[in-house]
Write a structure and sequence with these properties.
Layout (H helix, E strand, L loop, with lengths): L2 E5 L3 H13 L7 H7 L8 H10 L3 E5 L2 E9 L11 H6 L4 E2 L2 E2 L5 E9 L8 H13 L5 E7 L3 H10 L2 E7 L5 E8 L4
Parallel strand pairs: 6-7
Antiparallel strand pairs: 1-2, 2-3, 3-6, 4-5, 7-9, 8-9
Length: about 190
Amino acid sequence: MGIELGLSKTTSDLQGILHLQTANLPQNISDEQAQEQGFVTVSHDLDLLREFHDIEPHIIAKENDTVVAYVLAMTAASKDTIPILIPMFQIFEEIMVDGRPVSESTYLVVGQVCVSKDHRGMGLFDRCYEAYREAFQDRYDFVITEVSDLNPRSIRAHERLGFREVHRYQAENGSEWVVVLWDWRKN
């Protein structure tokens, strides 16, 4: 059957995202795995994921009805829903792209991206992001996200796709975040 990419549609799809997310949280993997393979930072619940989905669906990759990769879609409408992400949206007021703040553009935020351990190195990260662009590029100028500087694998993967660093900042807890942007108007 192979791996099928598409938009999230069902509660089962959202539950599959949550299952994969939980398996890749720092507390559920070794420090070595986190450093070598990456990790996800934020833990969502079904209601929050559904709230995001109702604004824009997520990109998922499924194999035999199991979610094996995803890219979450968030918009500015979600900026106050996750406390840990509020500083990121506040930074968007300051970051300038083409002479104006990010917040004045029509943008989509990658709420999170994850590929299952057994499916890494197969090009699925790139395929999911291409599906993301195909689904949303007609409505948004660019996609933006932030990546922990402790997650170099994710930073390199985003750069490979065409994301560029537009800002760095240090969070209140001392962790450093790299804000990256993929400008769809120029591709």
